[in-house]
Amino acid sequence: MRVLAAMSGGVDSAVAAARAVEAGHDVVGVHLALSRAGGTLRAGSRGCCTIEDALDARRAADRLGIPFYVWDFSERFREDVIADFVAEYQAGRTPNPCMRCNEKIKFAALLERALELGFDAVCTGHYALLVDGPDGRELHRASDAAKDQSYVLGVLTAEQLAHTYFPLGDTPSKALVRAEAAERGLTVAQKPDSHDICFIPDGDTRGWLADKVGAERGQILDRAGDVIGTHEGAHAFTVGQRRGLSIGTPAADGKPRFVLEVRPVSNTVVVGPKEALATAEISGIRATWTGAPPAAEEFDCHVQIRAHSDPVSARAQWRSGGVTVVPDAPFDGVAPGQTAVLYLGTRVLGQFTVDATVSAVAVDA
């Protein structure tokens, strides 16, 4: 099998490429240049996709004895990931850029080019399992629950899964991957994992957004609509946030307040008690399925709303216009823009972008 190994410069993708070579595949390594202003080397574990990462990926490819290329996907990344991130915040939603990157870059743009060049599959260092089921290839959770990345892969389609290769999916732990890298002589064996948003390497999302969309003073409201404070820009807030509200007057019950809603049109932020974050229903758009859509319009499943949150049992209903989910127990603080991934056991069924939520707590509670 001809395999294009996406090599980020980290230990996972390096070991994944090594396993593909060891399995006898014809492997070519490629690093995606996602920024044309990537001259600043990463400090510590923040960020990814820097010049440092490209050099690390090249050293790993040289060690494995495979051809290596750097492909410039910066324009596509700017349009499909960064511009989408800004637009979502401007609309009062909380986006997940890693989901968009997997959807639009790693398993769309990259896979499209790979197939055009005659490759059979794209190999990555993601922790997830591919299982050949009765109706085609299925996406399942990884063996190592702590490293499972099936959530951020929930955007993949059946066609994309058919040309995807995850050599690390059945590895019991990340420690074993690092040990294997060291044994193979890969210099990235102890390289820190990347964190935060790759195109905001200093971690200052609020400052970065202020530069992109501007900052304008607005009002902070309680659930009754009364003004209780001001802010420097609604884009800086997300549902569930507690810190940084700067409300001078304490709540009547003395309890801390949390962001319940962001209203970009009026540039207002609604806050309230933690109990009001309980969400009784979510509905959304951009639904995709990792295989054929569910046979029934209503079905039981588990829903995960964050990359590292616990799945919640729920009842889902889907039609051509979108998906609605009612959890058996309320979700905690779901923000429009988040991705909800649906599971049946360990299998990923599909995903959608949350567009609306219904609180489990009445306004006057």
Automatic annotation (TrEMBL):
Q: What InterPro entries does the annotation carry? A: MnmA-like, MnmA-like_C, MnmA-like_central, MnmA-like_central_sf, Rossmann-like_a/b/a_fold
Location of the protein in the cell: Cytoplasm
Site entry: Interaction with tRNA: 126, 338
- Cite the tRNA-specific 2-thiouridylase MnmA-like C-terminal domain residue spans from the record: 285-350
Q: Which residues form the tRNA-specific 2-thiouridylase MnmA-like central domain?
A: 208-272
Origin: domain of life: Bacteria
GO MF term set: tRNA-uridine 2-sulfurtransferase activity
Q: Where is this region: Interaction with tRNA?
A: 147-149
Claim: Nucleotide-binding is one of the keywords in the record: yes
Q: What is annotated as the active site?
A: 101 (nucleophile), 198 (cysteine persulfide intermediate)
Reaction(s) catalysed by this chain, per the record, are: S-sulfanyl-L-cysteinyl-[protein] + uridine(34) in tRNA + AH2 + ATP = 2-thiouridine(34) in tRNA + L-cysteinyl-[protein] + A + AMP + diphosphate + H(+)
Q: From the UniProt annotation, give the residues forming the signal peptide.
A: none
Alphabetical keyword list: ATP-binding, Cytoplasm, Disulfide bond, Nucleotide-binding, RNA-binding, Transferase, tRNA processing, tRNA-binding
CDD domains associated with the record: MnmA_TRMU-like
- Give the first-level EC class, as a single word: transferase
All disulfide bonds of the chain are 101-198
**What Pfam families does this protein map onto?**
tRNA_Me_trans, tRNA_Me_trans_C, tRNA_Me_trans_M
Question: Which HAMAP family is this protein grouped with?
Answer: tRNA_thiouridyl_MnmA
PANTHER family given in the database record: MITOCHONDRIAL TRNA-SPECIFIC 2-THIOURIDYLASE 1 (PTHR11933:SF5), TRNA 5-METHYLAMINOMETHYL-2-THIOURIDYLATE -METHYLTRANSFERASE (PTHR11933)
Give the protein's biological function: Catalyzes the 2-thiolation of uridine at the wobble position (U34) of tRNA, leading to the formation of s(2)U34.
What's the protein here called?
A: tRNA-specific 2-thiouridylase MnmA
Which source organism? Microbacterium memoriense
